[in-house]
Task: structure prediction
Amino acid sequence: MSDKEPKKSGLFQIFKDIVYGMSSHEMTRHAVRSRASMEHLFILITMGDLLGVPILPPYYSLRLLPYVTPQISTWKRRMLRERDITDTIG
Amino acid sequence: MSLRDVFERHPERRYIMFGGKGGLGKTTLSATCAYWLARQGKRVLLFSVDPQASLSDIFQKDIFGKGAVPIVENLWAQEIDADKRIKEYQDEIRQKILDMYGFDRVPEEIDNYIASASAEPAMEESAIFDAVVDIIVKGDYDYYIYDLVPLGHALYYLSMAKVYDEWINKITKLRQDMGQYDQVAATLRREAHVEEDKILEELRYIKGRINTSSQILTDKKRTAFFFVLVPEEMIILDTQKAAELFARFDVPVSGYVVNRVLPQELRGANVPAFLRNRMQMQEKHLGAIRANLGSQILAYVPEMERDVSGLPMVERLARQLFESP
Result:
C-alpha cells in the first residue's frame, strides 16, 4: 500500500508500518479470513448443486456463476476435504 | 354482473388470467376474451405460459417460439419456447465467463454444472417465469392476457415467487455483511476505496425480476383472475380447494366462468335418455354452483357443437360471451 504514495519520509513510513504490524495487522487478517469464510458460505447456498446440495433455483444461480468461477475449485476442495487437527489450531 | 361489466367497470385491470383444471377451456376463453378486447380497439397480447401451449391450434397458425405474432388487428399472440430460451441463456452465461476471464473455453467443471442445472425440472418453469417478466416490462399493450397452466402449476408458480423472494433477501443480506468485512479490512489497511460488489448488483436485479412478476399476480388493482369450471362434481370440489389456496396467496379472484353448459334449446325436444340424464346431472350441479358462488358467476358458456378453433369460431363464441344479454 505504501509503494503507491511518494515517500516523503522513509523513517516515518517504516514507523507507520511497524505500528500497523503490531496493532491492526491481526485484525485485518481476521476480517479477511471471515470474509473468505462467508464467500464460501455464499457459494454453498447459491451453487450448492455442484456438491449435490440443490438450494437456490438453478435458473438464477446460473446468473451468478460467472462471478464465482475462479473460486469454485478452492471452494469445492474446502467443502469436501476431511477435517484434521490443524483446523483447530488455525 | 357479466364478464363484459367487469372489463367496462375496471379498465385499470390490464392483466387478465384464466385459471382452472386442465381441459376445461382456459385457452379457448383466453383467446375469446383477447379477441373481443381487440375488437373494442384495445391493443392486446395473449400469451401462453404453458409448455404444452395450444394457442397455435386455436388460431390455426404456428406461433410457437416466434415472439408476438399478429393475429387480427390489435391482437397479438405469443407462445414461449422455454427450451430455446434456456439454450440462449446458457450460451449467454458461457460467453460471460469467457469474456470475464479471457478463457478460450469454459472450464469443464463449470460447463458440466451449466449443463446439469439446465436439466432440472424447475428450470423450464423459471425460464418461462423470466420470459413473462420480459414481456411485461416492455409494457406496450393495453391488455396482457395470460393463458395459464393448470391450477397446480399456477400455484407452484406463485409459491415459487415467494420462496425466491425470501431466498434472495437472505443471500443479499449475507452479501452485504461480506461487504462490511471488506470495508473493515480496507479501512484498517487505510485503503480508501472498496470495489463495487457485482454479485450484489446481480442479486438486486434478480429480486427486481421476481418481484415484478409476483406483484402483478397479486395486484388487486391491475389484475383480474377468472376461474373456469364446468358443471361436474369433481371439478366443483377441486375449484373450491383451489380458490381457497389462491386466497391464501392473495390472488384477486374477479369471478367464475362456467363452461360447457348444455344448450337450453335441447330441453323438451325429443332427446335420448343418455342426453336427458346428462342434462339432469348438469342441472343439479349448476344448482350447487349457483348456491355456492351466486353473483360471482360472470358467464355461462354453452357447449359448442364443434371444437373452437379458427377465427370464425372464436368470433362466434366472443359474441355469445360478451354481446348476448
Notes: The first helix of chain B runs from residue 3 to 9. Chain B touches chain A through 47 residues (CB under 8 Å). The domain at 3-80+139-153+221-323 of chain B is CATH 3.40.50.300 (Rossmann fold). The mean pLDDT of chain B is 86.
